[in-house]
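Ligand: magnesium ion. Inputs:
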Amino acid sequence: MEIESMVANSALIKAREGGGSKGRSWKWREMFRFSHISQCADLAETIERDYYSLCVKQPIGKKLFQLFCRSRPDLQNYISLQDALVLLLKKLPSPVTVVTSMFFQSIQCVSIMLKHEDSCIQRLELDPCLDVFHEYVFFKNENNNLSFSSRQPITKQTFRQYRLLGKGGFGEVWACQMRATGMMYACKKLEKTHVKKRKGEAMALNEKEILEGLDSRFVVNLAYAYETKHALCMVLTMMSGGDLRFHIHNIGEPGLDKDRVRFYAAEICCGLIHLHQKSILYRDLKPENILLDDNGHIRISDLGLAVRLSEGKLVRGMVGTLGYMAPEVIGRKHYGMSVDWWGLGCLIYEMTAGQPPYRVKGEHPKAPEMERRIQTEQLEYSDKFSKSAKDICSSLLNTDPKQRLGCQSSGGSEVQAHRFFRKINFRMLEAGLVKPPFKPDPRLVYCSDVQDIDEFSSVKGVILDKTDINFYSKFNTGRVPITWQNEVIETGCFKELNTFGPEGSRSPDLDW
Ligand code: ADP
Ligand code: MG
Ligand code: MG
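Predicted complex:
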């Protein structure tokens, strides 16, 4: 390894280790200085103010609500129940827990909890929640109140930049660290000139808008979208474990062991179900686009080709990556979610066999030949495939989308019910409670050396004008509230900044 790479890697490893409080700028408190509460008055008009949004969906709201309940003897039941639910879910995952937790996430529960306070109930009925919880919606911090979401602009200076992680179609992906909190992220840059030259505006905006509407542990989160002079930037969950391509092909013998294949396939399956529930068709499943985090969980990334389907509609278009496209895509037909289940079949095949389907090692057939094979050839399964692995692959790689696994009315749950996944407890998996079979080494950087990643070529002669600026302003929306709130909590900033308690004091006996 060259010295340049070693320096870049050790800087990144050091930043990752110090992630959180050690990585914060010494001026971090100053960076958190937000507008006075009186200047946030308009927020009260624009934010969703119902119980679900304030106390369940918004991570900081949820935290404040829990603290509020802890500080009130009459609300202890709520907290005890929440704690019990978490334990129960770990021990005895059953539909019952889900029903109860859904019940407790409804406004009724607030009334039940406040049973002994008739006046509260009445006030709640008049204005569900704000009347009672209003003062707790904001951090109380003498004269600089921190609102749910800050309004400081996001610029290049908001982050420290570390090494280059990868290269994409429109630009590079870099490791970066948010200065105010110390949180590590990956910044996907789209070069403005490249985007313009290749008419990628709609695609860039599409990727950003789809990501911003998602909140799944199986899909990368978007934390910030901002622009610099030369680039549009999407700041994404840092996936330090590298992509599946690297794990399948660059570490030891090609392929992965059975437990890993099953675990990754199951998490991808959950990610697909989440996307499909939101009517999003992903269209680009392949090992490069599945990334590992530092604990060994995977997330689907690169939503550049994803589309939102309108109710019951299908789409058309030869879109995807050669070798991973479903027969109905190659056949220029209308298609729907079926293509993603085909993609999952390709992935399970490649993870098991150590090579992609319909290709032998080192071979790069041209498009027409690849298409012919996909549409007409019978796949070979080596003895690396167990009976159930072979069965799930051939069911997902059924050339007829009507008969393919996952494409019946029950959708993804049919895939989850396949014998291949019999050892997976999907409820636990969805709650993030299953320990991954492989944990990336925190001392390693799972990507190619910096100098082996091709330099991103610049384009000349492209002039940016007014119409471009209009598009940039749609892209450049700054923080994504939920991800930002999680960042503030995870890095401990919330704990240090929040002086919650009666009259704005910090209550010493609060159990964090
Ligand atoms: P493109 O849409 O141009 O294909 P990608 O989003 O796939 O770009 O990113 C290109 C490469 O950058 C990926 O293959 C991966 O190696 C790296 N990369 C992308 N996102 C992340 C991330 N969140 N964490 C770590 N590495 C990433
Ligand atoms: Mg990609
Ligand atoms: Mg892409």
